[in-house]
Amino acid sequence: ELSILNNCSPSQLEGLCSFLQLSTCPEPSLVHFCRWLLALTPDLSYTSAAVLAEQLFLRRVLSLTQPPSRHLMAAIASFCSKYSQPFCRVLMSVVLREPGAEQTKLVCELVEECLEPQCVQLVLSQVLEVPLSEKLLPVVQAVLGRQVSSPNPLLALSQEQLPPELLDLLVLTLCQQAPAFTSSLDFAKVVTAVLTVYQGQVS
């Protein structure tokens, strides 16, 4: 039955999600639905996956006031295993504008454990599009501490380097906004991580 998702326009897909009440369905059902999506052939288009990401997860993530349930995390991890790009484009751009404590923790967990390297870079680029804040510094730390093969989180990106233009933007942002973080321990950790991981590229 889910093959109908490949034949819907974005507006039809939004209507179908509303009719099925997917944004408020019980979380165990959400896990099953996301697993069914992975078995769907052909894969969803980028646009359809973006619509589903918004309908399935945006309201749930924005309303978090405590750590997400294991069912919600399982559903997100399942969805992101195939559709992480549209997920990040849709959710991160909204969540990162004014993240709460639980939203920040969720983004950090996704960066550290679920997202592929290109999506980790996408998250960082989205962070750098908004004014840097104490709430967003842990996300930057999570990107820089991405575990790949090194037991040392500061050296982890030696296997997963940021592209030069993104590194330049990160360094420029840190330099420009440093006066606002003179007493921030998290900011100091971020600067230390950048200087450690990219010591040969940062003068």
From TrEMBL:
GO biological process terms, semicolon-separated: interstrand cross-link repair
Name recorded for this polypeptide: FANCE protein
Entry's Gene Ontology cellular component terms: Fanconi anaemia nuclear complex
A Pfam cross-reference name: FA_FANCE
Fanconi Anaemia group E protein C-terminal domain residues: 1-202
Organism: Pitta sordida (Hooded pitta)
Record-annotated membrane-spanning stretches: none
Top-level taxon of the source organism: Eukaryota
